[in-house]
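Q: Structure for this?
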Amino acid sequence: MMRLVTANRLDEVLQTLDRTDDALQRMRVDHALCADIRLVLEEVLVNTVTHGYPDERDGRIELDLRHESGEIVVEVRDDAEAFNPLEAGPAELCGLDERDRVGGWGIHLMCTLAREIRYARSERGNHLTLRFFDTAGPSS
Amino acid sequence: MSIELRSEPAAGGRTVLHVGGRLDASTYLEFDARTDELLVDLGGTDAPTLVVDLSGLAYISSAGLRSLARIRKTLRARGGQVLLLDPQPQVRKVFDIVKAVPLKEIFADSRELDEYLDHMQRKVVAERGGEA
């Protein structure tokens, strides 16, 4: 398993996405799947730092990456305000001009690219588990 | 990876913007600033056509989609259009998932795009001829 930790600042989150790419490549994850995972994580993390800390306090976000039974599992834990993306509702697909609203495209991309998304909330914060088919198979 | 932007002077009834690298949360502001300049340059053009060449674009996220939506909305309000050229598989997949762009505005290669623009040009000429 690989763990990455970032502060709740956009610049650090964007650097963490690059580190995630590196970590996935070290796990020998297929290039196209790396791009899918990066895309989902960008949507999750940018949303978290943009909307999850309205009081602008310092926060911490952890990412755990691992192979498990032919899948790549990514767990995201944060201490942000409660936010369950699965309750954001299915995006209505009406075309580009009409879809220009916060969250719509990002959540739709997440739900399409990940095989499974689970959300839990505890006193420690949000916990999102994302599962992706690893078409190239586990290598470690 | 950052974003690479290069525009060609308007010619043949179109302005071409080549986009390479990533169009995402880290680069969309640069894209917006550059396209704002282009849109100003196109200000006096009647029904401007902006071709966005995506052949060098490796990755797009919802932040990038919103930037494309922004220029599309602006040009459509002026009677113009944004046409997307040669999106690579990862980018095309994102378009397909969110149905962000009508299929008729995406072209696999320059020949397909040229045929479309020629057809549209002949249509405009014919309509003007009919009005005369």
